C-alpha cells in the first residue's frame, strides 16, 4: 500500500514522502495513529494544503521534547524489586515500571516511548533509551535494587551481586583448599 507520511517515521521516511508499506502496517499502525494518509490524489492535495501546519506542529513537538530531554539526560531513577541472593529478580522490570518511575518524579511519557528490547531481570545499573520524539532520543539510568539503601550503595559503584556483598567474603581470598580437603577419608579413592 502506498502512503504519504505525515511525520518522520524511523526506518521508513521523512514527512511528505510517499512510501510503500505492507497493508497491515498501514492499516494497524500508520493510519490509526495519524502518521500517514493513503496515497491518492485527494490526500496529496490535502497534505499539500496542510503541510505548513503539520511542519509547525512537528517543530513545536520537537521543541517540547528537547526541553524534556535536557532535564532527563543522564538522570537516574530507582526501582525497588524483590530479588534473590544472586541478584536475579523474582519478576522483571518492564516499560510500564519505567514509566511509573518517571511519573513519580513528574515526567509523563508513554510506554511506547521506552526502548526496552527485553525486560530487566537482575539488579544493577541499567541504561534505558527513551524516544521522546522521532528525532529526539535520551538515555536515563535505571537503578534496580532490593531496597533504597542498596540502591544508594549501587549508585556509588559498589557491586551487590558479588560474594563479598552477599556473604561478606572476599572473592579473591576464596581457594578450593578452604572447602575441600583432598586427604580426607574417601577422597580420591576408587570404589
UniProtKB/TrEMBL annotation:
One of its GO terms (molecular function) is structural constituent of ribosome. Binds to the 23S rRNA. SUPFAM superfamilies: L9 N-domain-like (SSF55658), Ribosomal protein L9 C-domain (SSF55653). Keywords: Ribonucleoprotein, Ribosomal protein, RNA-binding, rRNA-binding. One of its GO terms (cellular component) is ribosome. PROSITE patterns: RIBOSOMAL_L9. Residues 13-40 form the Ribosomal protein L9 domain. It comes from the Bacteria. Belongs to the bacterial ribosomal protein bL9 family. GO terms for biological process: translation. This is Large ribosomal subunit protein bL9. HAMAP family: Ribosomal_bL9. Pfam families: Ribosomal_L9_C (PF03948), Ribosomal_L9_N (PF01281). Gene3D superfamilies: Ribosomal protein L9, C-terminal domain, Ribosomal protein L9, N-terminal domain.
Amino acid at each position: 500500500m502506498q502512503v504519504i507520511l505525515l511525520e518522520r517515521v524511523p526506518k521508513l521516511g521523512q514527512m511528505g514522502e510517499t512510501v510503500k508499506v505492507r497493508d497491515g502496517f498501514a492499516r494497524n499502525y500508520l493510519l490509526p495513529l495519524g502518521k500517514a494518509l493513503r496515497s491518492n490524489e485527494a490526500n496529496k492535495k490535502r497534505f499539500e494544503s496542510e503541510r505548513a501546519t503539520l511542519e509547525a506542529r512537528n517543530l513545536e513537538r520537537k521543541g517540547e521534547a528537547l526541553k524534556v530531554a535536557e532535564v532527563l539526560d543522564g538522570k537516574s531513577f530507582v526501582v525497588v524489586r524483590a530479588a534473590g541472593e544472586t541478584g536475579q529478580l523474582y519478576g522483571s522490570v518492564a516499560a510500564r515500571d519505567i514509566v511509573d518511575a518517571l511519573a513519580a518524579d513528574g515526567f509523563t511519557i508513554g510506554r511506547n516511548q521506552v526502548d526496552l528490547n527485553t525486560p530487566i531481570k537482575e539488579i544493577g545499573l541499567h541504561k534505558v533509551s527513551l524516544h521522546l520524539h522521532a528525532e529526539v532520543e535520551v538515555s536515563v539510568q535505571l537503578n534496580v535494587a532490593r531496597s533504597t539503601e542498596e540502591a544508594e550503595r549501587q549508585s556509588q559503584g559498589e557491586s551487590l551481586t558479588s560474594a563479598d556483598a552477599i556473604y561478606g567474603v572476599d572473592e579473591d581470598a576464596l581457594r578450593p583448599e578452604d572447602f575441600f580437603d583432598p586427604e580426607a577419608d574417601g577422597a580420591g579413592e576408587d570404589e
